[in-house]
Each structure stands twice: as C-alpha cells, then as structure tokens.
Amino acid sequence: MVESSLGEILRGFIASSGFVRQLDLYRAYGRWEEVVGPEVARHVRPVRVERGVLYLVADSGVWAEETSFARPAILEELRRRGVSVRDIRLRQGTLPRPEQLADLPRQRPAPAPPPGAAADLIRDPELRGAFCQLGQGKEGDDPDHPLRRS
User: Fold this and answer.
1) pTM of the predicted model over 0.90
2) Residue 88, number of CB atoms within 10 A of its CB
3) Tens digit of each residue's pLDDT (9 = 90 or more) over 74-117
4) Running DSSP on this structure, what letter comes out for residue 123?
C-alpha cells in the first residue's frame, strides 16, 4: 500500500472530478488576451478544455494558421500562467462572445472513484475512519461532531 498525504488524496479527487478542466478553461479565457495579445484575442478564443487539450476557435483560416504557428509559445505562456494544458487544437468558426463564457458547455466530470478508493491510501486507521465518515455524511448524524452541518 502506498502512503499518501491528505493533500495528495484531495488533489487526486479534484482532478478526477472534472473541476480542473473547467478551472483551466476559465483561466485560459481570463488570461487569453495577456497570453496572445489583443489582436489575436479579437480573432481566436478558447472554447473548451478536454483531456489536457485547449480547443480554440478562430474567425478565419488565416488566424487559425497564424495561431498554429505560435502554438509552442502559446502553450508555454499558458502553462507559465497556471493553465494545465498539453496541447492546443484549432478550428475555424464563429467566436463566442466574452459574456458567453458562462454559457459554454460544461465538461462532463469523470466518473467518481469507487467508494473507499481514496481511503485505501490512508495508512493511519483513525484518519482513514474519519475520512470515510466524511464521505458518508456521518458528521451530520452526530449532533456533537465538529464538522456537523448547521
């Protein structure tokens, strides 16, 4: 059995939940003009992140081609600014308006790990028990539990 810290377990859960993809999209969208400059940002926009790939839409083939030439530099700058992407894919199409970010299709979260999968990584029996109780909502059953929800 591999011993893991609670932080590692939580990072694993967050990564498997689909939150990271959505966060990466918001980060990419929010920093896009800083990354590519105002001229490119007027013609090319991020639309989704899936499996580490940032999907972009360009309003013309010329802008898609120009952006593809700059792909390595764009990837490096995105990573430097905290966006976890391994590649960029471009297509020509209609640009979403900036206010449409909230309307972009939500990424389907990855299936949840089987119950107890994360707990199996916790070696300390008392901590493992507390972690399992949190996952089962036990804190709400005990009126004196420190994590009881009001």
Assistant:
1) no
2) 20
3) 999 998 988 888 999 999 999 887 665 544 444 444 555 565 56
4) -
